[in-house]
Design brief:
The chain is built from 2 helices and 6 strands. By secondary structure, it is α+β, with helices and mostly antiparallel strands. It is globular. The N and C termini lie far apart (about 35 Å).
């Protein structure tokens, strides 16, 4: 089951206020960017964040899962808790670089 447009809009609403938010459909699923930095991957209507050192403590009681086959282990973000999500996303955004654009050949 692919992520629905309604769900991706809900996720974006829940983190509204942490920066400039946009999303991009990728392989039937979505990547959410904050200030042009990839922060949340949403697969099958489940939001995932990378297991980063900066959020280890605040995510210690969170579920862990794999957004897609072959992916590394990620935390599952409790998107219904808006304030918690905003704090997690803010920490991730601080340490995530803006991806470099690939030059076309």
């Amino acid at each position: 089951m692919a992520t629905t447009n309604e769900y991706i809009e809900y996720v974006c609403e829940q983190i509204n206020g942490v920066g400039e938010i946009r999303y991009k459909k990728m392989f039937g699923e979505f990547m959410i960017y904050v200030n042009d930095k990839p922060v949340i991957i949403v697969c099958n209507n489940v939001p995932f964040v990378k297991k980063l050192e900066c959020i280890t403590e605040i995510m210690k009681n969170s579920e862990i899962g794999y957004p897609y086959k072959g992916a590394k282990e990620h935390y599952v973000l409790d998107i219904d808790n808006s304030e918690f999500c905003k704090s997690v996303v803010s920490e991730i955004e601080k340490v995530t670089p803006i991806p470099k654009t690939k030059k076309k050949k």
